[in-house]
């Protein structure tokens, strides 16, 4: 892919990268994907932090059943996920018809095929992954830490602000970077839902490879390389943040 991105019929060239960096439509695709990835990762992370905290208060058998269900849910993605949402929230979906019947204006005006619909699907497939990544982090908060803090007169809020959250922060940052990369590379669900009607970088790569008019694999390779660089940069920033946070804790 890297070699292809620097080549054309005449040999070595930088023309593909020049096209990517000067093409407003491709840059818009990067911007849309970046925005969608960050927002979906943040929302999934916040929701999952509270969800995992609640799960830790259940008995061990209940926790195991929830984790099994989460594992199964995390594998429900791609085209089947898009189809399920279309059946439920599409133009003639079950909930769409119910919202119209009950005259719930704010919900009946919702469009699954818009940016909001894409965000909803992205959040859905981010949640199980975030839960599986954050559960071991919460599990690492030992009960004797809470008891020691209580004996020293600390409230529950003070414990989480001074001990719990700082200990969990490296894991939270790492989870965010994984969620961001997961969303940036997502293709099947977005394509099945919007085809090529919404400009995302993964959809642009697919369109250039299959060729709506004619294929441009060299340009697709250049976009894919830049997408990989974006995700690797996010991972490196995350790694740097984790090391810095752990250094402060020590």
Automatic annotation (TrEMBL):
Membrane topology: Multi-pass membrane protein
GO terms under cellular component: plasma membrane
GO biological process: transmembrane transport
Locations listed in the record: Cell membrane
Transmembrane segments: 34-55, 76-99, 119-138, 159-181, 219-242
Alphabetically ordered keywords of this record: Cell membrane, Membrane, Transmembrane, Transmembrane helix, Transport
The organism's place on the tree of life at top rank: Bacteria
Keyword Hydrolase found: no
Domain ABC transmembrane type-1, first and last residues per copy: 30-238
Gene3D superfamilies membership: MetI-like
Recorded family membership: Belongs to the binding-protein-dependent transport system permease family. CysTW subfamily.
Record-given protein name: Trehalose transport system permease protein SugB
């Amino acid at each position: 892919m890297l070699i292809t991105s620097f080549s054309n019929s005449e040999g070595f060239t930088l023309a593909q990268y020049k096209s990517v960096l000067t093409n407003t439509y491709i840059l818009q695709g990067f911007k849309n994907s970046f925005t969608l990835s960050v927002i979906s990762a943040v929302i999934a992370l916040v929701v999952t932090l509270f969800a995992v905290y609640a799960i830790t208060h259940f008995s061990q058998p209940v926790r195991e059943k929830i984790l099994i269900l989460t594992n199964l849910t995390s594998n429900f993605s791609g085209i089947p996920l898009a189809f399920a949402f279309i059946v439920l929230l599409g133009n003639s979906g079950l909930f769409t018809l119910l919202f119209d019947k009950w005259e719930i204006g704010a919900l009946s005006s919702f469009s699954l095929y818009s940016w909001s619909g894409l965000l909803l699907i992205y959040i859905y497939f981010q949640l199980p992954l975030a839960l599986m990544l954050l559960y071991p982090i919460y599990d690492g908060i030992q009960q004797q830490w809470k008891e020691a803090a209580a004996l020293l007169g600390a409230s529950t809020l003070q414990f989480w602000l001074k001990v719990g959250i700082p200990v969990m922060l490296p894991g939270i940052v790492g989870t965010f970077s994984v969620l961001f990369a997961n969303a940036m590379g997502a293709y099947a669900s977005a394509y099945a839902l919007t085809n090529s009607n919404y400009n995302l970088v993964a959809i642009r790569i697919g369109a250039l490879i299959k060729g709506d008019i004619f294929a441009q694999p060299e340009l697709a390779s250049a976009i894919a390389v830049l997408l990989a660089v974006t995700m690797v940069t996010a991972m490196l920033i995350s790694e740097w943040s984790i090391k810095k946070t752990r250094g402060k804790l020590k």
